[in-house]
Amino acid sequence: MTKELDQDAPEFSTVIEVDEIPSKGLQMQLKADATQREALARRFDILRVDSLSAECRLTLLAGGPMVQVKGTILAVVQQNCVVTQAPLKQSMRVPFSLEFAPASMVEENVELTLEDADPPDVILEGKIDVGEAVAQQLALALDPYPRQDGVNLDQVLDALPEGRKALLDRTEPKNPFAALAGLSNSTSKDDE
Hints:
By secondary structure, the protein is of the alpha+beta class. The chain has helices at 34-44, 130-141, 153-158, 162-167, 178-191; strands at 2-3, 15-17, 26-31, 48-61, 66-80, 87-102, 121-123, 127-129.
């Protein structure tokens, strides 16, 4: 029922044949090994993925052909603090729910708003890659700007040596039209 894809497959691939999902559903547990975690860390551009596991349930919706994949991801990741650049370890618990449908049921080029529900993912060649779905959900849950508790950007900048402070000018940028306004005022005075 499950098989690993070829070498071009995603880092954490676990493929399920939709036709082999029992009518009562399928419970799965996935766990990334060290090689998979290292590859995912490179893909996500973070320091490390220390652990990654997921508990998933696959359910045929209305007896098929759509499939719901619902579960919880447990992960420990390390990212750099955006302020201090120090390693920051984060424990994550990410619940998720996805729907998959045959390509014939998924409309392409549909404009969505933030209020719209996500369209189903496509079932490719009768298969769902549950491992890749888990990896994508983890990537979406990563903090894009991780920061250690109590760290303030101004405190870090104030602690820099004077020479480096000058490189980081925190004053408000000048209005690019200020020079034009000055020209406008000077020409109107000259006209008087």
